[in-house]
Amino acid sequence: MATKDCWQCVQRSSIENDSPLSVDNNGPENGSLSIVVLGASGDLAKKKTFPALFNLYKQGFLLANEVCIFGYARTKISDEELRNRLRGYLVKEKDASPEKLETVSKFLHLIKYVSGSYDSENDFRLLDKEISKHESTTNTAEGSSRRLFYLALPPSVYPSVSKMIKTACMNKSDHGGWTRIVVEKPFGKDLESAEQLSTQIGGLFEEPQIYRIDHYLGKELVQNMLVLRFANRFFLPLWNRDNIANVQIVFKEDFGTDGRGGYFDQYGIIRDIIQNHLLQIFCLVAMEKPVSMRPEHIRDEKVKVLESVLPIKDEDVVLGQYEGYRDDPTVPDNSNTPTFASVILRVHNERWEGVPFILKAGKALDSRKADIRIQFKDVPGDIFKCQKQGRNEFVMRLQPSEAMYMKLTVKQPGLEMSTVQSELDLSYRQRYHDVTIPEAYERLILDTIRGDQQHFVRRDELKASWEIFTPLLHRIDKGEFKSIPYKSGSRGPKQADELLEKAGYVQTHGYIWIPPTL
Ligand SMILES: NC(=O)C1=CN([C@@H]2O[C@H](COP(=O)(O)OP(=O)(O)OC[C@H]3O[C@@H](n4cnc5c(N)ncnc54)[C@H](OP(=O)(O)O)[C@@H]3O)[C@@H](O)[C@H]2O)C=CC1
Ligand SMILES: O=C1O[C@H](COP(=O)(O)O)[C@@H](O)[C@H](O)[C@H]1O
């Protein structure tokens, strides 16, 4: 019981009660709530946003007597048509018990559809009228209602949509209510375009109203990173250049761009994954201890470590493109866009000088996974000759099947004195039987409603992240950096493994993991 209370206090209450800097006065926790999903007919909305809202509803975080969800898009369809389109994304046919179907129906009845364009004031006034109508049906004091606008849209329309929201759809008075907007990546294509977008949106909304979402920050093990680092005595003295040889942050997908080639070709893997998802993880691994868990304290530290990253050297980069990528008719025949990249970041500060951080991401590779691998230095004066077997590693596997394990050397059980590689293993499925790990979007949307910006990217953070990658990206765009072809289903270009070795990573040999049985 005590442990549970303590955990909850760290997880939420302390953040909320203790964090005046984090929120736009945090606002009311109940009363009328209007969630507007702009781009309601799109892929992201159907696959991620609405299912996340449904899960929040199922768990009682969205109350039927308070909430109305508005889908907004250009397509002219009725409320019922939108609901029918969404139904299949909320419940799989095989799980469709009568109870589940009833819950889905109740949720779908909270959804209304408004059709309009993204730059028409009239259309947004119509949306505002619908929102006000909903607000008048709940017992909420005027102006204390909550309005959340989720931009599940391409960034090209962010400026016009933000302007329309500001002109026509803001919460009407300052009686403690709020208006917040959630924006998705890609947030710009380089430093200049990101800053331009930030200036446009920043001219309309205050920073505490803007939630730049990076869904990797909502993944369970990413959320665990600060607890792990700063609540455990084990790690505190080890987490530095004296003990750590190298760090890998890896994202792999075993499928290609799958019909998204047209979009992907304009961005490439660095903009799609590394500049945002992997760099956010990098921040949490490398940052100093924040003064407190207040969102601004955490984000201050993230900015500091980003600003300590040295310019990326050519010899620290390997780019690849899988064979068959250009077969997609929406991808130009001569595309040089990388679908794979391995980039070493070097941090110029007291803790990390000399420790390479290898950020690797690729599509159409040999497996699907995302993990963080901290490799420790060899033990000095090794008397057991265990260096031949492998180094200590601490691995956090974000997906699939959340786990963290420490690879370590132990005595081989038995009469002989010999050593063997083994592990201390925390596999979430085994350890937490009754816990359903929430989807990243679910958690992050709940944070936007609660006004907790801890897991969202602040403007200066975004700027610092683009500063790191923009020079390299410009060179790739100009064709000055070539992508090496690799076979679909492989580990990517062999040059990436050579880079890893050059960075000092020592592969473990002969390590066999035997999954525990219950
Ligand atoms: N709780 C659990 O679920 C646990 C599971 N295990 C499992 O045991 C197995 C072994 O674990 P572990 O040793 O940590 O991980 P892996 O065998 O997955 O990989 C170890 C490292 O070697 C790299 N690598 C693989 N091939 C090459 C190569 N040819 N050249 C250079 N580098 C290479 C991997 O790179 P890359 O990242 O590019 O693939 C990775 O960094 C895994 O399947 C793991 O999931 C182990 C412990 C606990
Ligand atoms: O943001 C993106 O992420 C997905 C991978 O997300 P995951 O949660 O399934 O790991 C990736 O496929 C997509 O290209 C990228 O835009």
UniProtKB/TrEMBL annotation:
Its EC number is 1.1.1.49. It is found in: Cytoplasm. GO terms for cellular component: cytosol. Residues 36-224 form the Glucose-6-phosphate dehydrogenase NAD-binding domain. Catalyzes the rate-limiting step of the oxidative pentose-phosphate pathway, which represents a route for the dissimilation of carbohydrates besides glycolysis. Belongs to the glucose-6-phosphate dehydrogenase family. This is Glucose-6-phosphate 1-dehydrogenase. The lineage of its organism: Eukaryota, Viridiplantae, Streptophyta, Embryophyta, Tracheophyta. The gene is 25495714.
